[in-house]
Design a protein that fits this description.
single chain; 203 residues; alpha+beta; 434 Repressor (Amino-terminal Domain); Umud Fragment, subunit A; ten-stranded mixed β-sheet; 5 helices; globular
């Protein structure tokens, strides 16, 4: 499987494994392990890779059948789904499932791409109204890019915390302020990665 994964990634236009990991918001060591064979990956991860690299799931898992994936358009009787990769609990910390595999699939929002993923808000970290809402994002940026400044983003910090915050520049080079309406600001922090929130809907 790992050799087919590397082939699919390359043919999809990602020159390096790190590029693919970045595009999907997956930790680079996890993806590298899946591609070099040092760690296996399960069906839910394979489904995500097949969608991203436009290959068939059967080919990726077994090497059988046509390599080309089906159209990303879902059948009329089944709405398109995107992976739910974690949740944001009270205190605005997100907890990811081990191995970066999906916890569930949820209906895709309008305008979703093959790299769109979702997290679920649990608790009142963004206000009680948003408990159990879904937050969708894609296009993970490492490092933070200009278009994310003053935007509501899913943000990963160097200490492992994942939050939904408005990103603001700090006067300190390479650091940022993280703002929300319900909690005190977090000042002068280093951001490992960030992605703009594209959609929020009740679950």
């Amino acid at each position: 499987m790992h050799e087919r994964l590397a082939q699919a990634r390359s043919e999809a236009g990602y020159a390096k494994a790190a590029d693919a990991a970045k595009a999907m918001g997956i930790r680079e060591p996890t993806y590298h392990g899946h591609e070099n064979g040092s760690r296996g990956f399960k069906r839910d991860s394979a489904e995500r890779y097949a969608r991203k690299f436009h290959v068939s799931l059967e080919w990726l898992l077994t090497g059988k059948g046509p390599k080309e994936g089906r159209s990303m358009q879902a059948p009329a009787d089944r709405p398109r789904q995107v992976p739910l990769v974690g949740y944001v609990a009270a205190g605005a910390e997100m907890h990811f499932h081990a191995n970066d595999t999906a916890l569930d699939d949820v209906p895709a929002p309008f305008g979703a791409t093959d790299s769109t993923v979702a997290v679920e808000i649990r608790g009142d970290s963004l206000g009680s109204f948003f408990d159990r809402w879904l937050v969708f994002y894609d296009e993970v940026r490492r490092p933070v890019t200009t278009e994310l400044i003053n935007k509501l983003c899913v943000v990963g910090l160097e200490d492992g915390r994942i939050m939904i915050k408005k990103v603001q520049r700090s006067k300190a080079k390479g650091l940022f302020h993280l703002l929300s309406q319900t909690e005190p600001p977090i000042l002068d922090v280093a951001i490992e990665w960030a992605a703009q929130v594209k959609n929020m809907v009740p679950r």
